[in-house]
Amino acid sequence: MPEQFRIEVAGETNVGRKRNHNEDNFAILADYGLFLVADGMGGHASGEVASKMALDAMQEFFASTQDDPERTWPYKMDRTKGYEENRLITGIKLANLRIYETAQREAKKRGMGTTFVGLFTANDGLYVAHVGDSRAYRFRNGKLEMLTEDHSLLNDYIKMKRLTAEEIANFPHKNVIVRALDMKDTVKVDTRFEVPQINDTYLLCSDGLCGPVTDDEMQNILRDTTDLKLASSQLIARANEHGGPDNITCVLVRWMQQGARLALRASSFDGAASGPKPR
């Protein structure tokens, strides 16, 4: 992370109004400059196992490479990318392999998996990485911009041909994702490099937030609410106001001037809900 910056972080997760358990997980790993959201799938508790497994694997890998940057990795370095970007991608690939092998080995966990989105601060900026339809946004100067592209069947259709707003709204397979951790023993990770500015806020979220809540609504909440803890609660409340059809998770990371207080806040609560989570 650039020396002139400090960061403030808040994270929250909620079961939503339609599910009977929460398969989302998030992690604030400030020691590594790593902030993560994972949206599990598979049902019968396997989804939450997969999402937690992904975050645990990332933490373990970053811990093991923190003091030993020359540690031999099971994946070759991509010479077109720098060390830190390779480190981030390798951690995600290892998480994918761990989930895949567990699902293949244990029948009850067959078919489990998770989406993933993460932010990793580096010396000269930050990297955003994602797999699936969990998203990253940047809020800068009052404007919210999506930084990731959903790995979903709907997005593939949108890219292939022009769909009307009505066709998009009525698309019958909105929950179908085409890339996730566990689909194969290898996974392609999309990354993006960002140079943050003072007062930038980055939002990481599962589709339980960005599905029912529009970008404009999220933008207005971030514009009107400077306290990140309150903003994260308001974002989740808005998703529940729109029916809370899925588990809801968000992590907010704000870049502040050096000398500003470093705040790390994380909370989790569940509301009454019923019904399984399809994927």
Secondary-structure element pattern, one letter each: EEEHHEEEEHHEEHHHEE
Describe the global form: globular
Distance between the termini: 36 Å
Strand content: 25-35%
The tally of beta strands, per DSSP, is 11
Proportion in helices: 25-40%
Taking pLDDT < 50 over at least 5 consecutive residues as the criterion, the unreliable ranges are: 269-279
- What characterizes the major β-sheet? 6 strands, mixed
Radius of gyration: 18 Å
Derived from helix and strand composition plus strand pairing, the structural class reads alpha+beta
Number of helices: 7
Strand order of the largest sheet: 7-6-9-10-1-11
In round numbers, the mean pLDDT is 86
Can you tell me about this structure?
The protein is of the alpha+beta class and 279 residues long. The chain is built from seven helices and eleven strands. A six-stranded mixed beta sheet has the order 7-6-9-10-1-11. Strands 2-3-4-5-8 form a five-stranded antiparallel beta sheet. Helix 1 packs antiparallel against helix 2 and helix 6 packs antiparallel against helix 7. The longest helix has 23 residues. The protein starts with a strand and ends in an 11-residue tail after the last strand. 42% of the residues are buried. The C terminus is likely disordered.
